Amino acid sequence: MTLANEFIEVIHQIPDTIDIPLIQEIYIPCQDKKKRDPQKSNFGAIKLEDGTVGVVYISLSPNIKEIGENTDLTKFKGMSPLDLAKEFTSSESFQKTLGFGAINTISQYIFQKSNFSLDFTTDSLGLLQLNHTDNPGMVGFFPPLVAQIKKMGLKLTVIEKKAKLVQKTNNWEVTLDPARLETCNKVLITSTTILNESIDEILRFCSNAEKISIIGPTGGFFPDPLFSRGVNIVGGTYIHNSNLFMELISKNERWGPSTRKYCIQKSNYPGITTLLNRIKK
After folding, report:
1. Is the predicted pLDDT of residue 38 greater than 80, yes or no?
2. Edge-to-edge, what's the strand order for the sheet holding 156-159?
3. Domain span at 72
4. Is residue 84 part of a domain?
5. Is residue 103 included in any domain, yes or no?
6. Alpha carbon distances (Å) from 274 to 111, 121, 140
7. Domain holding 109: CATH number?
8. pLDDT tens digits along 221-253
9. 3-state secondary structure at position 102
């Protein structure tokens, strides 16, 4: 079964007795290079009527943002996020992107309603517990980890999909070959690999890794399907002030004042069934 279908199966486990708020707003940024932080224009948001927000990555392909800019997003107002989440298995890139965002939003709502205690104190990079004997790997480019590894004098292998990024330095190498991960004992993976459906291929080459961490702004989903595939850590972004977040993202400014990063460790996670049972009680 594909990972997308497993996420939909999790969504189907949510009983009718749990009232998921309807969609209040979907925001997709316009391309405006004059704004303060152009990189943030890679993300949109889905906000529910109770204020819960999930982050949406909208730069997987050039047409996604273009479709979003030309779509009347008000048509989603009042829609159940459970229905939108089912689009994660769609062959249409824009619908699939919104479906993944809806899964993140629903997950954030369930985390809150079940009183699941998110770990805001632990660093997802720190959880890798890098030492001088490690051979780390990275899927996607994480500057903080690159700096940390450079400081430790370790050799880093970075897997990318774009040929123009291939390069090699004394401290790290960017390659298109995911098989290079077979020599890595600790691996950090961008959550974008779930949206572009490369995650299963990536994980096949991580069988020798003692620790695997998946992080990113769109890592706000239920971790169950990833934990069942051998992932140890999932790191996401919790939005504690939704009004401020929507204001900042609409201005293309940094989200820091409205968000906190968190980690979920497989060893401490009770599972979706337990979380849903807490709400039903």
Report:
1. no
2. 167-168, 172-175, 156-159, 136-139, 186-190, 211-215, 233-239, 259-265
3. 3-117+240-259
4. yes
5. yes
6. 11, 23, 32
7. 3.30.390.100
8. 999 999 999 999 999 999 999 999 999 999 989
9. helix
